[in-house]
Amino acid sequence: MKTRIILSSALLAVSALTTATAWADGSPVGLWKNIDDATGKPKALIRITESDGELKGKIEKLFRPAEEDQNPKCVKCEGALKDQPIIGMTILSGLKKDGDEYNGGQILDPANGKLYKSKLTVVEDGKKLNVRGYIGMPMLGRTQTWVREE
Fold first, then answer.
1. 59-74 as b/e, with b when 16 or more CB fall inside 10 Å?
2. What is the pLDDT of residue 2?
3. 3-state SS class at 83
4. How far is the CA of 52 from the CAs of 21, 94, 95, 96, 150, in angstroms?
5. Where is the DUF2147 domain (predicted)?
6. What is the reported pLDDT for 122?
7. What is the CA radius of gyration of the chain?
């Protein structure tokens, strides 16, 4: 039992240190609350991870009114994502560091099932993330601000 407590404490400390390091170096890795650019209300918690220099973002939680389905499916998505649960879905992928930005990726909007080109920028000392989805050129799109949760 004592070994378990020590091991759990060590894992928690390493996790906290990793998160603090990512935050301090301006990395987008971590847990983010996305804010709807139209309503100003939180929509979801998205965990961004990095593997081989590429970012991915997966939905961990949705903020929905109690009367709505709490585990909706992506009915407007196409292909393999059609009718898959939105919670657990990877919506952000392919982004790679390019100077102060992360570019070259795509973002899925589960509300309409569409994929958009994407880029993101870490701002306010790692506390916020500007996530832009666009068609063609970045100026033909919209930006959401995500707030760090960790």
1. bebbeeeeeeeeeebb
2. 46
3. coil
4. 18, 11, 11, 9, 23
5. 30-148
6. 97
7. 17
pLDDT tens digits, one per residue of 40-62: 899 999 999 999 999 999 999 99
In the predicted structure, residue 27 carries a pLDDT above the cut 50: yes
The structure tokens listed for 103 are 């570019």
In this structure, how many other beta carbons lie within 10 angstroms of the beta carbon of residue 133? 22
Model confidence, pTM: 0.81
* Cβ(14)–Cβ(117) below 8 Å: no
E-state strands within the chain: 30-35, 42-51, 54-62, 90-98, 101-109, 114-123, 128-134, 141-148
Angle at 99 between CA 93 and CA 100, to 5 degrees: 80
